[in-house]
């Protein structure tokens, strides 16, 4: 499974980083999310799906 954050849509609510801190980090310059690695490690797919569902802006997608 691969994931991505659409930087043009992300508003920095940080829910993804709280839901799956190993998969997302927040950029220093604006607090918006980015993925740590596009490829989700084995066993963390459910965290990635939860993060996708919790994003109020729907900025996270599965590739």
Features:
two-stranded antiparallel sheet; 19% strand; 4 strands; globular; alpha+beta; Alpha-Beta Plaits; two-stranded antiparallel ribbon; 63 residues; 2 helices
Put the structure in a nutshell.
By secondary structure, the chain is of the alpha+beta class. It has 2 helices and 4 strands; from the N terminus they run βαββαβ. A two-stranded antiparallel sheet has the order 1-4. Strands 2-3 form a two-stranded antiparallel ribbon.
Order of SSEs, N→C?
Answer: EHEEHE
Distance, first to last CA: 7 Å
Let me know the average pLDDT.
Answer: 97
Largest sheet: 2 strands, antiparallel
Number of helices: 2
Largest sheet: spatial strand order: 1-4
Query: Would you give the CATH topology?
Result: Alpha-Beta Plaits
Word description of this protein:
This protein has one domain: 2-Layer Sandwich (Alpha-Beta Plaits), CATH 3.30.70. It has 2 helices and 4 strands; from the N terminus they run βαββαβ. A two-stranded antiparallel sheet has the order 1-4. A two-stranded antiparallel sheet has the order 2-3. A hairpin with a 6-residue loop joins β2 and β3 (33-35). The longest helix is centred in the C-terminal third of the chain and has 10 residues, at 45-54. Helices cover 24% and strands 19% of the residues.
